[in-house]
Amino acid sequence: MFPGNDPNTVRREAVNDALLRIRQETHEQYTVPKVNFPEWVLTRLQWRGDEHILDVGAGVGTYFDSLRQHWPDITYHAVDQSPGLLRQHSARNTACLADAQALPFPDQCFDVVMANHMLYFVPDVEQAILEARRVLKPDGVLIAATNSVQSMPEFHALFRRGMLLLSTPGKIYSQPPLPTQINFALENGTRILARYFYAVMRHDLPSTLVFPSIEPIMAYLESTRSTSEPQLPETINWDDLMIVMREQVERVLDHFGELVVNKVAGVLVASNQGGFIREFVQALNA
Fold this sequence. Notes:
By secondary structure, the protein is an alpha/beta fold. The protein contains eleven helices and eight strands. It has one domain (3-281): Rossmann fold (3-Layer(aba) Sandwich), CATH 3.40.50.150. An eight-stranded mixed sheet has the order 1-7-8-6-5-2-3-4. It is elongated and about 65 Å long.
């Protein structure tokens, strides 16, 4: 049976898509100050307006509407591994199923490759970056939005406190499972990209999540279960940890009336001889 038609595969993809949507909607609804993050990311680059763009891990096309609105003459292609998300993309005719580690495009055919909030999901990050560099023109630019490893420390503290409370005598656990994966964050992502591109520029956008009630908090934490639970010690059960977490959050809300979670997202822009580095390279070679 073709994997896309297998009931178990479809069910698993639907669950993953739903959890991803919970995280996206949480950030959209509870972030203070309100920022149109895709717009902010796109303005980190100076556009001509006629670029050929590849959106890797495009999902439902979060960046597509902003691109079309501001630069209607661009040529846009998208890839993702989720059929469910791509079915919701408004540019389905130029979107296809593909792996970021093996892009189905020839060498040097795109001016811009976007890999926004997706590289930390890729098993081999460096292979995905090599593929992005391969399909970029010599003066092309890679845009990679991601989070800081220092993002959401309040959630880390709540996890740490919960694990301490559930630790057995003689076995004290305090290293929390991170709510987000960190194999490609703003910090190490800069270093990784610098191995493959001549120049990398980092842009940070600090903000906060402000929660007035408990259910959105617990829904967000539960949406991280697939990545956080495997990091727990065998003696600590996820459901027990969530019960303790709920009790902690309720105390915070009772005392302060809200839970404020600080976060830092941003974008890394990398190129060999284009974008922000173009004039420098031209002067260097003059």
